[in-house]
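Batch job 17 of 40 flagged for manual review because the log was empty.
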Amino acid sequence: MIKKRKRNPYTEGCALSKHIRMYTNKARKGIDQIRGRSYEETLMVLELMPYRACYPLFKLVYSAAANAIHNMGLNEASLIISKVEVNEGTTVKKLKPRARGRIYPIKRPTCHITIVLKDISVNEQYYKRSKYDILCFKNSGWINKNKYTDMTCHDIYSMGGLWDKK
């Protein structure tokens, strides 16, 4: 059983758009570019990307920000995109007449997009990192030798994890 994440209604604004006429995979191409970005940066990115899904996403992000500003009184400069998801909608089915009295089915898929904007000024100490914080991403190869001096990156080649077949 999947547990649903509880939203904080005082620091998050959301918008939902249903029955957008496109495949979910095509919408996910645009969504992967904006996940985790700030509101203003997202609007700039969506204006310049060449994907077809960018215009509905632009309208939806703008709507979610307007909901957050109007309903909760949040500041638009401190909004980030905390959650974006695309789900399949209903499929519009039509029949096209073909030769010799036959028919050909046409399936046009739809999708539902949900965007949640979060205010980071409430939890500023959680999102903002000082220069003395320790970053230790063991999976990506970052290892911190000294707590307050420098960080060294051991790349994949020196660990023997990647090699050529040449």
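Reviewer: the log was empty due to a logging misconfiguration, but the result itself is present. The domain at 12-123 is CATH 3.90.470.10 (Ribosomal Protein L22; Chain A). Unflagging and moving on to job 18.
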